[in-house]
Amino acid sequence: MTAEKDVICIVCPIGCKILVKTNGKDFEILEGNKCKRGTDYARNEALDPRRMLTSSVLVTNGEWPLVSVKSSKPVPKDKIFSVLKEIKKTKVNAPVKSGQIIIKNVAGTKINILATKSIKK
Amino acid sequence: MVELERKKMINLNVDIAIIGGGPAGLAAAVSAHENGAKNIVILDRNSWLGGILTQCIHDGFGVEETGISMTGPEYADIYIKKAKKYGIKFMNETMVLQIESNKTIKAVNKKGLYDIKAKSIILSMGCREKTRWSVLIPGDRPSGIYTAGVAQAFINLYNIMVGKNVVILGSGDVGLIMARRLKFEGANVIGVVEILPHASGLPRNVVQCLDDYDIPLYLNHTVTYIKGRERLESVTIAQIDEKRNVIKGTEREIKCDTLLLSLGLIPENELSMKAGVEIDEVTRGPIVNQYFETTVPGIFACGNCLQVYDTVDLLTIDAKKAGKYAVKKMITQNNNIIVQTGKGVRYVLPQIIDNPGKIHFTLRVEKIMKTPVLHVFADKKEIFKKKLPWANPANMIDFKLDISNDIINTKDSIEVVLYDG
Predict the structure, then answer these.
(1) Same domain, A61 and A44
(2) Using a CB-CB distance cutoff of 8 angstroms, which residues of chain A are in contact with residue B159?
(3) Are B22 and B126 in contact (CB under 8 A)?
(4) For B114-135, what is each residue's pLDDT tens digit?
(5) Which of A8, A66, A116 sits opposite B71 (nearest CB)?
(6) Residue A4: is it exposed, middle or buried by C-beta count within 10 angstroms (0-12/13-18/19+)?
(7) Which terminus of chain A faces fewer neighbouring Cβ atoms within 10 Å, N or C?
(8) pLDDT at residue B358, as a whole number
(9) Which helix (H) or strand (E) holds B270?
(10) A58 & A101 share domain
(11) How confident is the model at residue A13 (pLDDT cuts 50, 70, 90)?
């Protein structure tokens, strides 16, 4: 299925509106971008949009009730809510060290969830 | 009857006292140490260091400065570790009560009352959020109305969910970030209402926090009424015209239990003012020269209490300079010039130039321009002209310009102007 869609470029503050034609595999820019970085951005957005994911995980016996976490790599956009669901179910015991793996291979994505803060007991 | 122990005033002498241990204070402290200062103390009212970064668990910090995208706590940790390694002293849970122009500080904590004499003071108190009373929204006073930053602290630090059906007024970055955060926590984010014809926050946040999750952004709209007996029951939103008058017939009542306010930030400068530091009416931060020195010699300012920065990266770069100049005090001439804001420009920093040299200016424009051209005039004679790729009030603009000895000695002021086309 070929579809046309608008991508708003976020590489710089100009914010070009790039009109993209894609069938999920191939990709063509119809109009809009002013630079090469815009082309790369639009390609990723059209073919494989991903986002860094940040949230928090419950901590037991810690000085704070939560530890902030992030994905080790950008998560495919359509997997964001299944990853969040697993994050929500997780509990971790204090102490927690920043960088520590909290969930391995979250929601089958081969991406890990890492602590971004240290929490003392 | 309880005998109160009479405690003596605790006297301290330091080279540099820094008010506020957020990103600006930490960067200034680290830089002051690297430039030779020995006895540095950071005073902060919180029990932790890193200020607001602690609750900013999203990523995007550090990209411009280091090329790596970090979360708020990770970014803060870099500077906290460095400051600890350098032996910088921290006084947490300490409230600064007063700063005097002779650079003495009165502060209080559980141990008692302090009298701190400093050779230099760096102001880095940050901002407070604007509240409902800054924009005077009529209606009831139910629970369920939060500033975006307070909601962020509740959710990200204290594990307290703020509500289920949420309307956000104002499209500042914190509001946009919170729209996504609330969505992640299972709330129904009904929409973001913005009085301006464009978003106030960064374009990347509009795309990644609203567009990604189909959260509508109502531009040229505002909240005109708040209804609710105990808990918020509804808000009325309406479209406005160019003069910000409500267009009759566009009012719409939206059922919701929570209203988040992301109306912008107010630099926190009560302490600065008491010390006699002059405040810029537009930035609401101290007036500074190119060395980040305020109008009170030996008192410097950096971070969001100076101007509200777009990103922590840009803030850190400037705070490091403030830290350096607080150590290596520059001897200023008597002939200084004033930097005036001309057409199209909301404000420019620094406001005063004391010595010739390459000056780094930062400014904010009044409105979006398609083909902006920046001009600098010295007594009506153009000394600089540059085409800019974009001009957007949401993004700070910076430029460098050599200010010659001749200009300093013969002119009273320079004017920065931005024309479209």
Answers:
(1) no
(2) 56, 58, 65-66
(3) yes
(4) 999 999 999 999 999 999 999 8
(5) A116
(6) exposed
(7) N
(8) 95
(9) helix B270-274
(10) yes
(11) low
CB contact under 8 A, B73 and A51: no
**Are A97 and A74 found together in one domain?**
yes
Residues of chain A contacting B212 with CB distance shorter than 8 Å: 51, 77
Tens digit of each residue's pLDDT (9 = 90 or more) over A51-64: 999 999 999 999 99
Quick one: which of B354, B379, B374 has its CA closest to B362? Answer: B374
- pLDDT for B2 equals 58
Instruction: Tell me how many domains chain A contains.
Output: 2
- pTM listed for this prediction: 0.93
| C-beta atoms of A65 and B158 within 8 A | yes
Q: Answer whether residue A121 is part of any domain.
A: no
* Token pair belonging to B379: 């007594």
For the record, the structure tokens of B154 come out as 């509740």
Same structural domain for residues B289 and B399? no
Of B57, B77, B204, the CB nearest to A54: B57
**Residues of B near A (CB-CB distance < 8 A)?**
54, 57-59, 69-74, 77, 155-159, 184, 202-204, 206-208, 211-212, 389-390, 392, 394-395
Q: Tell me, what's the pLDDT at B66?
A: 85
Tell me how close the Cα of B203 comes to any Cα of chain A, in angstroms.
6
- Range B133-144 burial, b when 16+ CB lie within 10 A, else e: eeeebebeebeb
In the predicted model, what is the mean pLDDT of chain A? 91
* Residue whose pair of structure tokens reads 């464009």 in the numeric block: B198
Residues of chain B where predicted confidence (pLDDT) is lower than 50: none
Q: Which of B306, B328, B350 is the last residue of a domain?
A: B328
With CA atoms as reference, report the closest residue to B88 among B123, B125, B49, B119.
B49
Q: What confidence score (pLDDT) does residue A23 get?
A: 86
How many Cβ atoms are within 10 Å of B299's Cβ, its own excluded? 27
Q: Say whether both B313 and B347 belong to one domain.
A: no
Tell me the residue range of the domain where B312 lies. Answer: 9-130+265-328
What residues of A are in contact with residue B73 (Cβ under 8 Å)?
68, 98, 116-117
Residues B105 and B142 in one domain: no
What average pLDDT score do residues A28-38 get?
81
- Whether B59 and A70 lie within 8 Å, measured CB to CB: yes
Element (H or E) spanning B257, and its range? none
Domain that residue A97 falls in: 54-115
For position B335, what pLDDT does the model report? 78
Task: Count structural domains, chain B.
Answer: 3
Percent of chain B with pLDDT over 90: 86
Residue B2 lies in a domain: no
Contacts of A117 in chain B (CB under 8 A): 54, 57, 73-74, 77
Tell me the pLDDT tens digit for each residue of B125-176: 999 999 999 989 999 999 999 999 999 999 999 999 999 999 999 999 999 9
Q: Name the pLDDT band for A1 (thresholds 50, 70, 90).
A: low
> What is the spatial distance between Cα B193 and Cα B168, in angstroms, rounded to a whole number?
6
